[in-house]
Design brief:
Elements lengths: L1 H55 L7 H24 L1 H28 L4 H17 L42 H57 L2 H23 L2 H27 L9 H11 L4 H17 L12
Helix pairs in contact: 1-2, 1-3, 1-4, 1-5, 1-6, 2-5, 3-4, 3-7, 5-6, 5-7, 5-9
Length: 343
C-alpha cells in the first residue's frame, strides 16, 4: 500500500511541475507585455505633451485634444504601473522556477526510494508533508495567498516541513559511518554557513528589497506627476506644465525599465531562496547531529558526500573549510572563505 500511495504522490507532483512551469511562462509573458505596454503609453504621452506645448504655446493653436489624450494616457499608465509593481511579475516567475525545480527534486527522491528502498507509511507521510510545504511556500493563486512582495526585511524561503523526519539508512558498521571528527566537521560547516553564506545573502537580499521598494514607489509617482502636468496644460496651456509632464514621463519610463526590465524583484526572490537553501542545510545538519542514536541517522559517509555536493565542494575541500573555521575561531581571526562554491 505504501508503494501505491507513493506512486499516487508522484502523479500529483508531476502535475504540479507542469502547472508551475506553465504558469511561470504565462507570468514571464506578463512581465514582458506589461513592461512594453506601459513604456509605450508613457513615452507616447510624453511626446504628445511636448508636441502640444511646442505647437500651442504662443501660437494661438488649440491643442486641447492632445493635452487631454496625454493626461488620460499618463493616468492609465499610473494605474497599470501600480498593479504591476504590486504583483511583481518577474518575482512571480522566479517563484515558479524554484517551485518547479524543488518539485522535480522531490520527485527524484521518491523515485530513488521506490527503486532502492522498502517504503513504509512514514515515507508516505513524509512525502505528503513535503508536497504540502512546497504548496504553501510557492502558492499558485494571486488573490489572498500571494507572497508579500515588499516585506519589512528578507526572510529566507521555507519549503520543507517544520518537523523533519531523519533519513533512515541501514547501518553499515557499528558507528554507521559516524566519527567524532565527522561530527565536529559538520558543526564547523554549519558555523561557516551561518556566519558567511547566510549573512551575506540576507544582506544582499535586503539591499535588493530596498531598491525595489524605491523603484516601485518612484514609477507611479512620476507618472502621476506627469498626469497632473498634462491636466494643468488643458486649463492653463502653461509651458512649465508641459515640461513637467514630458520630463516626468521620460523619467517614469526609465525607472520602470530599470525595475522590471532589470527584474529587480526576481533578484530579491533569488536571494530569498538562496538564504532558504542555507537555512535548510543548517537545520538538516543540526537535526542529524541531534539524533543521539547513530544507527537512526543517515550513514555518515553518505551524509558528508551529500553536504559536499550541495556546497559544490569535494570531500577534501569540505574538510579544509571545517579546519579553517575551527582555526579562525580559536585564533579569533575572521573567516575569509564561504562554505558554498555554487552560489
Amino acid at each position: 500500500m505504501a508503494t501505491f500511495q507513493l506512486y499516487a504522490i508522484l502523479e500529483a507532483i508531476a502535475d504540479r511541475v507542469e502547472m508551475h512551469n506553465n504558469i511561470g511562462e504565462q507570468r514571464d509573458n506578463w512581465n514582458t507585455l506589461l513592461l512594453n505596454s506601459i513604456n509605450m503609453i508613457t513615452l507616447t504621452a510624453a511626446t504628445m505633451a511636448g508636441v502640444a506645448a511646442a505647437t500651442g504655446v504662443g501660437a494661438g493653436v488649440s491643442v486641447t485634444g492632445l493635452n487631454l489624450a496625454s493626461s488620460v494616457m499618463f493616468s492609465a499608465a499610473t494605474g497599470m504601473l501600480v498593479l504591476m509593481n504590486k504583483i511583481q511579475p518577474s518575482q512571480l516567475v522566479e517563484e515558479q522556477r524554484n517551485a518547479t525545480r524543488l518539485f522535480k527534486q522531490l520527485q527524484s527522491q521518491i523515485k530513488t526510494l521506490l527503486a532502492v528502498g522498502s517504503p513504509c507509511q512514514d515515507d508516505v507521510n513524509d512525502a505528503m508533508e513535503k508536497v504540502l510545504a512546497l504548496d504553501k511556500a510557492y502558492p499558485l493563486p494571486l488573490l489572498g495567498v500571494m507572497l508579500d512582495k515588499f516585506p519589512a526585511s528578507l526572510e529566507p524561503a521555507v519549503w520543507w516541513p517544520t518537523k523533519q523526519s531523519p533519513n533512515s539508512n541501514k547501518a553499515l558498521n557499528n558507528n554507521n559511518g559516524w566519527t567524532k571528527e565527522l561530527e565536529m566537521e559538520m558543526r564547523e560547516v554549519v558555523e561557516v554557513i551561518k556566519r558567511k553564506d547566510s549573512e551575506d545573502y540576507e544582506r544582499l537580499g535586503n539591499k535588493a528589497l530596498n531598491m525595489n521598494k524605491v523603484l516601485a514607489t518612484s514609477g507611479p509617482l512620476l507618472t502621476g506627476i506627469a498626469a497632473l502636468g498634462s491636466a494643468f496644460m488643458v486649463s492653463s496651456n502653461s509651458p512649465w506644465a508641459a515640461t513637467v509632464a514630458a520630463v516626468a514621463g521620460a523619467l517614469a519610463s526609465a525607472v520602470n525599465t530599470f525595475e522590471h526590465g532589470g527584474q529587480v524583484g526576481m533578484v530579491f526572490e533569488m536571494y530569498r531562496n538562496n538564504a532558504g537553501f542555507f537555512k535548510l542545510m543548517q537545520e538538516s545538519i543540526k537535526s542529524t547531529l541531534d539524533e543521539c542514536d547513530v544507527e537512526k541517522r543517515e550513514n555518515g559517509e553518505l551524509f558528508e558526500m551529500k553536504v559536499a555536493l550541495q556546497l559544490g565542494r569535494s570531500l577534501s575541500e569540505l574538510r579544509d573549510v571545517a579546519k579553517k573555521s575551527s582555526y579562525s575561531r580559536i585564533e579569533g581571526s575572521p573567516m575569509d572563505e564561504f562554505a558554498s562554491k555554487l552560489f
